[in-house]
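Team,

Forwarding the record for the chain on the shared tracking sheet. I've put the sequence and predicted structure together so nobody has to dig through attachments.
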Amino acid sequence: MSDFAASQGANGDAGDGEGDDGDLARLRARVTQLEAQVLRLSDECDLLAFENARLREQQASGGGGCDGPPEPATGDDSKYERDIGLLDPTDGRSALTLCHTLDGACGGKNVTCVRFLESLGDTRQFHRRRHRGLSPPSVRAEEVIAVGGADGALHIYRGSSDGAAHWRLATRVGLGAPVLCIDQAEGWVPDALILVVGLMDGKVALLRCESLEALPGVELRVELLGKCKIHRKYVTSIAAGVDGLVVSGSYDKDAVLSRFVPDAGDGDVLQEARRFFHSGEVECVGFHGREHFFVAARGASKIVCYAIEGDAPVGEAAGEESPVSLPLWEGQWEGPVNLNVMHFQVRNENLSQDLHVPAYSPLLLAATDASQHFLFDVRTKRRVRTFAGHDADGFSNPRVTWHGQRGQYVSSNSQHTNSVVTWEIGSGRMVGTKAGAHHGVIKSVYHHTHCDLLVTGGFDRTVKIWSFEEA
């Protein structure tokens, strides 16, 4: 007789109410015990999978042991990693220094997303003029930051390019719902920048931004072009591509490819081109060049790659130069551990001649909710680095960012300590940790493309601007 049946029989002689209460208490205790065992086993699986990955990387690079840093790659691996930019020399500047804090950056509400608008900043103008053989701007160098949060508005700040004081609110645009994601598009309209903004009500807002430094008393003109209902649930990620293309992802499990229509008279400035359905909620989307985009959805075993002109994922027979879907786990040594890709960023190289279309390297950096970040070569589907040592679980909001022109480092938020951590790409080592960077959960991390500034925002209702110094 089972323990449960025996206990029922023993309790049958007593009062029915007392026996039922005892059985229920024992069942609840047993359920609690089993849930704890499941959690322990899940953690063990994650650790074993990570150790397998680390050992395989050490063996591939010539390191036979488990202790100490991995040995340098040799032979073909060394040439391969050098060719794709993994072994570029570092400059030692991996320590964060706080330059400025914007308190109450979203009207005193929580900050959900923040990024530099490089196309409006003077550092971008400097590079543009230098590329054309002209002298740099004579005005004091300034940068522009876009901030979104729970107050349902987009806030744009301007400040010095060294990250120091004198940051000020340039404009605020109410959008009617919390702002969850922001991207910028250059070259869609003459002499202006288009911002694409994902909102919690499932809409995508488009705004036209013009810098008007020549006009006294006017710093920035921002015009709301329209808001379009693209999704049934909130927009988790948005990306602007070339030729007026926008891809958005949502918790309605759809990724939607849309096209910007500047002359729409009814405010419907986005027209849906195609809708891609997934089995889980879409966490992140992003373009790779003119022909492809990637989608990361919860519960998926791959970061899926789609051709812009096609309806199905790019197949295994794609040419060597075409990106393909990226498996999260490799070979017989690893199993499908319960993790999700929450964010990714494709590395941009130097701008092309027209300064509107960035050239993309083959590297994609992915943040997961299992305290691991992966670096992929999108041409070969090869996972070339695994970054660990931080903290991210299913309730976190892990974000990753390349270090602009200094592409030797990547940074990320860490959950429970509210830290910003930095890894050296060549060695895969964590080389910088800024513990307690915020007093609340860090929701957004973004590195400037053209200068050495990092901006972070979080649930302590602040935005912080950082620079990097020698460690």
